[in-house]
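Re: [ENG-882] Designed sequences occasionally contain unexpected residues at chain ends

Forwarding the minimal case from QA. Structure tokens:
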């Protein structure tokens, strides 16, 4: 078996890169990642919390990948062990947090969209996840909202309002997935995970939302510390990795 390439790590987004959006990883991709691990160090960085990443990539995710960064790396695992956490509540304070949540809920209450479900704001350890339709929607409703949003720009308009309202708090609003966007302090995007990767001189990042406006992979894709790769699907991820690291 070929030895791992020293000082090199391949880092992957989850939705649209290793899996279809909010879907479970395929056996083919799981097998491919284990083959890739024989050649390079492999990590995953997602905006979702650890529970959701585990649902998609499996309960053994911290053993199947060398690094697992959930919530952009605000919860960090290395070789199966927790190595770092960060708290939005501690960082920003309860009063400012309540101000953001109250305003956002009022905005959603006045928003006229075809359907609304439940869980419009999900409080995570390092960020708020905001969904105009509500995270309790079905997969069919999720797909329909994604189409509707592409035409009506519901999320991007909402982000513009929030960005102006809370400019004094230096927050980042990052649109990702099909139905929501994340709210977190500036610098807490996916580049946050890079603080744990100082031992690597070559960091390859693979993501599907690498575009500048609203793409939650953009900052790490553009980082001077990474070599960014835009993918269009999990199948494209495998194809690019085969060419780059496996020589086929």
């Amino acid at each position: 078996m070929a030895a791992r390439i020293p000082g090199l790590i391949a880092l992957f987004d989850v939705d649209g890169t290793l899996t279809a959006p909010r879907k479970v990883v395929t056996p083919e991709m799981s097998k491919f990642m284990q083959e890739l691990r024989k050649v390079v160090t492999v990590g995953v960085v997602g905006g979702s919390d650890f529970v959701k990443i585990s649902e998609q990539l499996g309960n053994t995710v911290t053993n199947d990948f060398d690094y697992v960064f959930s919530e952009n790396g605000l919860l960090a695992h290395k070789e199966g062990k927790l190595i770092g956490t960060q708290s939005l509540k501690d960082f920003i304070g309860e009063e400012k947090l309540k101000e953001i949540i109250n305003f956002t809920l009022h905005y959603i209450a006045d928003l006229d969209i075809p359907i609304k479900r439940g869980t419009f704001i999900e409080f995570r350890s390092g960020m708020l996840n905001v969904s105009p339709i509500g995270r309790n929607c079905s997969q069919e409703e999720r797909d329909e909202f994604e189409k509707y949003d592409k035409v009506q720009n519901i999320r991007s308009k909402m982000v513009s309002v929030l960005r102006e309202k809370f400019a004094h708090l230096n927050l980042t609003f990052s649109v990702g997935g099909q139905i929501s966007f994340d709210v977190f302090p500036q610098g807490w995007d996916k580049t946050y995970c890079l603080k744990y990767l100082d031992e690597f001189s070559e960091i390859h990042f693979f993501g599907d939302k690498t575009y500048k406006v609203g793409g939650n992979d953009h900052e790490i894709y553009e980082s001077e510390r990474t070599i960014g790769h835009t993918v269009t699907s999990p199948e494209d991820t495998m194809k690019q990795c085969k060419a780059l690291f496996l020589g086929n």
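QA comment: On inspection the terminal residues look reasonable. Residues 8-74+188-246 form a domain with the Rossmann fold fold (CATH 3.40.50.1000). Proposing we downgrade this to a documentation issue.
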